[in-house]
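P.,

For your records, the input lines for the assembly:
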Amino acid sequence: MPSACSSTSLSSLACLKWSVEAMAGGAIVNTGGGKDYPGKLTVFVFFACFVAATGGLIFGYDIGISGGVTSMESFLEKFFPEVYRKEKLDTSTNQYCRFDSQLLTIFTSSLYLAALVASFCASTVTRVLGRKWSMFGGGVVFLVGAVLNGAAKNVLMLILGRILLGIGVGFANQSVPVYLSEMAPARLRGMLNIGFQLMITFGILCANLINYGTAKIKGGWGWRVSLALAVVPAAIISIGSLFLPDTPNSLIERGHAEQAKKMLRRIRGTDDILDEYNDLVAASEESKLVKHPWANIMKRKYRPQLVIGILIPFFQQLTGINVIMFYAPVLFKTMGFGNDASLMSAVITGIVNLFATFISVLTVDKLGRRKLFLEGGVQMLISQSMVGILMAIKLGTSGEGHFSKAYSGFLVLFVCIYVMGFAWSWGPLGWLVPSEIFPLEIRSAGQSINVSVNMFFTFVIAQAFLTMLCHLKFALFFFFGAWVIVMTIFIALFLPETKGVPIEEMALVWKKHWFWSRFISDDDVHERNVEMGKPNSAF
Ligand code: BGC
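Structure tokens returned:
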């Protein structure tokens, strides 16, 4: 520890810098993923990434808030009177089908359709104007949506607000992960990128706690507070983004070579940046040859990135995580918990989600992406099978039966073990891996595909869950478990390790891979080497 950290006249910057480096594993070492550029993790880059990561708050806040709000009676009575009446009159004893209502789920899931469409527009803004303006735009639109929702007088205002929130999420999710992966030094890219997921989980937890509080407000306007408070995360990212520097990759891509050099020196904390700078320029030259990113992404040589960029977000949603995130209170009610206990259990899973994400932050650049994916997959499979088995034993297929306290405790325990597994694997890596595998020329387009696939399947799960629970009953957990088996095998066979590989050198990993190498011809290798100024080197 530097003396500054232990002395009373502490130099906070030196101390913070030490802490950051210590968190990243002491002296920065090459993790063995390939080429290594000089430089260290500077306080400047740490803060830039911290501010950018707050873009995850708006996504997280929304995930956490909508489930709770849609279970508040005053909200249902005002906007969805039929659902409210049905719930009141429903005397059925089948626990599985108590909450099956399409109209209500549309409220939750409409946002994700808006986000899906918006991410395609965000792709152009991110590429042409730079990453920070996408974040700013996303924050401001989200803010307007939050005001509309908080003040909603009718369903129209509510839905319009949801659409604006969705546009905000689409822009933020498109730009933030790319920004983080470009700013970070290769060997710490995982850690800094996961800041995004950390903010998502923090947003979810805050929303859960806020719902817990506002549900108790007398007079039936608690839901307004929950919805309106979304202005807070929106203001944080809108204002924060104005202070963000552009990434060197984006500066070069937009023709600001000198600024890019300066920025690289500043974020790497060294003057020895020429090697990295030259590689960024070469990557940018190559990207200039690409006039139509959307047509190019279809080329055979990009097939590995395209397939992985589509399957990772698809699989992330098929883990079934959002069943817990959106419907935890409903799910816990189905398991026989009372109202308060259900909301409290949702808070518990929120806390587990946040803290388990830290494990990923600390290990992703040491263990690598693959190990976390594989371990998380096995853990999720075992725990969700246990939840399915426990529900089958008590509720059977009739959906009738009650849980003792101890039995419910066991259920919550396995749900928590499941959330933990997700939180250090598919949660953060679902955003990290797609943001780091696409070469510059198709990065924005690739990230839009990632966001839109993610949003589409978030929409599908949000929309279908209550009906699926009603029909599949406890087997719903085995359904998601089966998908977890598929995705874990996919990772084992088809995902190359990307830890420590510089982002503009990522093309190397495919050529070395047993399966993907067949998609990259010798001509592609030669073409790329010429672009990178190394015509005679091999992959
Ligand atoms: C996923 C969300 C999920 C959240 C839970 C994110 O990575 O994209 O769909 O709700 O993790 O923490």
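Two observations worth noting. Residues 1-33 have pLDDT under 50 and may be disordered. The chain has one domain: 43-505.

Regards
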